[in-house]
Design brief:
This protein is an alpha/beta fold. The protein has two domains: about 5-65, Winged helix-like DNA-binding domain superfamily/Winged helix DNA-binding domain (Arc Repressor Mutant, subunit A), CATH 1.10.10; about 80-285, 3-Layer(aba) Sandwich (Rossmann fold), CATH 3.40.50.1360. It is about 35% helix and about 20% strand. The chain contains nine helices and 16 strands. The protein has an eight-stranded mixed beta sheet, with helices on both faces. The chain has a three-stranded antiparallel beta sheet with strand order 1-3-2. A hairpin with a 3-residue loop joins strand 10 and strand 11. Helix 4 crosses helix 5 (about 105-115), helix 5 runs parallel beside helix 6 (about 130-135) and helix 7 (about 160-170) runs parallel beside helix 8. The radius of gyration is 19 Å and the shape is globular. The relative contact order is 0.10.
Length: about 290
């Protein structure tokens, strides 16, 4: 692909970039799109309007996110988005009305924030710019604490020493953590700045929920963020491979599978608890503790 200025007069290429970028960022502002391609805000809105008419995206306060509603099923990009949205909705069921929670950056974190129940009146602490923007744009927003610092463009999130210092001054009941890979040792990521933030977030949480698509169990990444012993629950879209069960059993990690299956004809999404075979501790799917 040529330089972004070469795409000034190529709407299809701009729109393709928007869809791909939304897969990792979760949210793009009008200014993000206009600045990327050197076009006016009007042109950026026209691109968004075209994608919205095709039911590929949805407009949110100040920008755009992927449309993950059922009518988009079957599109190559939306299959992934649908799994991520199911994981986010499942994870959000673990949040209580007055909780203080931290939500990691990335698409799964964004989907979890977007699925927070309407009655949620607690506090969300996050270093994700899209999550801050999305929650602040709600009619009845929760309390949002944004962790400042240097902006990492790849995930539209704050990183660096300022963000680490801000994390050190807070405490949360539950952390919703994301990772690039998961194995018998723990969770991994590719980027050192993101790994540092995730490790610091783990230190301030009473309970950690790992958000992971099933592909993470077969992926690899070089930087260990935290061990399985630091994680109480994994929310994913398919059961982990058999070799993972022994490790999850030893670490006493609960696994929730976001099946997306509507029970009793209801349109609501539900989740299904999957239990490691030899651990009776996991037989209570509502038990959030580990000891």
């Amino acid at each position: 692909m040529g330089h972004s200025s070469d795409l000034h007069d190529k709407p299809a290429k701009r729109q393709e970039w928007i869809l791909v970028a939304l897969q990792t960022r979760g949210f793009l502002s009008i200014s993000d799109i206009a600045r990327k391609f050197g076009v006016s805000h009007m042109t950026a809105r026209r691109d968004i309007r075209h994608l919205q008419e095709m039911r590929r995206v949805r407009t949110v306060h100040g920008g755009v996110s992927l449309d993950t509603t059922p009518h988009t099923l079957g599109h190559s990009l939306v299959g992934k988005a649908g799994a991520e949205a199911r994981i986010g909705r499942c994870a959000a069921t673990l949040v209580e009305e007055a909780d203080v929670i931290a939500i990691d950056a990335g698409r799964l974190g964004y989907e979890t924030a977007a699925a927070l129940p309407e009655e949620f009146r607690g506090t969300v602490i996050t270093h994700s710019l899209p999550i801050v923007q999305m929650l602040a744009g709600l009619c009845r927003p929760a309390r949002v604490v944004g962790l400042g610092g240097e902006v990492a463009a790849d995930r539209s999130s704050f990183v660096g020493a300022i963000a680490v210092a801000a994390i050190d001054g807070v405490r949360v009941r539950t952390l919703f953590l994301t990772a690039d890979a998961v194995d018998h040792r723990g969770a991994y990521v590719h980027s050192d700045p993101h790994a540092l933030i995730k490790r610091e977030l783990l230190k301030i949480a009473d309970d950690t929920v790992l958000l992971a698509q099933h592909q993470c169990f077969a992926a690899s990444a070089p930087l260990l963020v935290g061990t399985l012993a630091q994680i109480s629950t994994i929310v994913t879209d398919r059961p982990p491979p058999s070799p993972m069960w022994a490790a999850l059993d030893r670490a006493r990690v609960r696994v929730l599978i976001a099946t997306g299956e509507p029970p009793n004809g209801s349109a609501d999404m539900r989740f299904k608890p999957f239990l490691a075979p030899s651990d009776a501790f996991l037989s209570d799917p509502l038990h959030a503790g580990r000891k």
